[in-house]
Amino acid sequence: MFANTLAKDKEISDRWRGFRDVADARHLANRVEREVVDALVAAVRAAYPRLSHRYYKLKAQMVRQDGAETLGPQCAAAACAAEGLPLGRRARHRA
User: Fold this and answer.
1) Which residues, at least 6 apart from 85, have a Cβ–Cβ distance to it below 8 Å?
2) Which residue of 31, 48, 51, 95 is 20 to 30 Å from 58, comparing CA positions?
3) By the 8 A CB rule, do 62 and 71 touch?
4) Digit-coded pLDDT (tens) for 43-72
5) Residue 37 class from Cβ within 10 Å (0-12 exposed, 13-18 middle, 19+ buried)?
6) Considering just the CA atoms, what is the radius of gyration of the chain in Å?
């Protein structure tokens, strides 16, 4: 209920100041134009496929290394799945 009051207060404040977008107040505080922010967002979104493929390629390389169990349960589970082993069997299989 309190969040609704804050949201309405921001809406009224933005309307009084003539802001067209909910983020315009933040852009003004950061001293950056909306066009610059929009260009940055577009550039980052355009790079998503390249960055995500690079991330998962690096993660796969880490999982394939012998010390993958130290990277956490998700990496250990991925390594088990990659080797076709049941979960939790990788450490015994490697030994």
Assistant:
1) 93
2) 95
3) yes
4) 999 999 998 888 888 888 887 775 555 556
5) middle
6) 24
Q: Are 22 and 37 in contact (CB under 8 A)?
A: no
Answer yes or no: are the C-beta atoms of 28 and 13 closer than 8 Å. Answer: no
Q: How far apart are the first and last CA of the chain?
A: 57
90 neighbors 79 (Cβ within 8 angstroms): yes
Amino acid at 32: V
3-state secondary structure the chain: CHHHHHHHHHHHHHHHHCCCCCCHHHHHHCCCCHHHHHHHHHHHHHHHHHHHHHHHHHHHHHHHCCCHHHHCHHHHHHHHHHHCCCCCCHHHHHC
Model confidence pTM above 0.70: no
